[in-house]
Fold this sequence. Notes:
Elements: E1 5-8, H1 11-20, E2 25-27, H2 35-47, E3 50-52, H3 58-70, E4 75-76, H4 81-84, E5 85-86, E6 89-90, H5 97-105, E7 108-109, H6 120-125, H7 134-145, H8 152-161, H9 166-177
Parallel strand pairs: 1-2, 1-3, 3-4
Antiparallel strand pairs: 4-7, 5-6
Helix pairs in contact: 1-5, 7-9
Amino acid sequence: MIKEVIVVEGRDDAVAVRRAVQAEVIITHGFGITDEIKKRIQTAQQRKGVIIFTDPDYAGEKIRKMISSEIKGCKHAFLPRQQAAKNGDIGIENASPEDIRAALAKVRTESPSPHLEFKKEDLLKNDLLGSEQASRRRDELGKYLGIGYGNAKQFLNRLNHYGITREEFEEGLKVLQS
Length: 178
């Protein structure tokens, strides 16, 4: 059982999450987040904590940012795109229960004041920016670290905001080499 409330985009996402874990779920209805839903998320955050678990696409990222900018201290779970894809559709509802549990096991808490451990040079030096394989490497490292895929700017932001340590980063790079 997960003690935090999981925030998802749609009803099908909620069904998939409930199939995978025992947890309370709040549905945002995509971009249709009403003031009432925001209040429910805020209350859940104060009482139990919240895990934002949106689809790994542009809309999901926008919803994630909208919620976390208004409600501080949220936790984040990221599902790799490949695990959320089915017949051209991207969504949590397409993931297996095992993949959902794995994503929730790697939940990260966003820090209100980022620990600026990582810089653009770290991305360049490790082929995470400016090389042909940079996108693929960010995707693989994001899976390992549980911070999802992002372009170079998003990835650097997540490294610094989700409490990734230098040791975790280096260990993830070793896994990429093997």
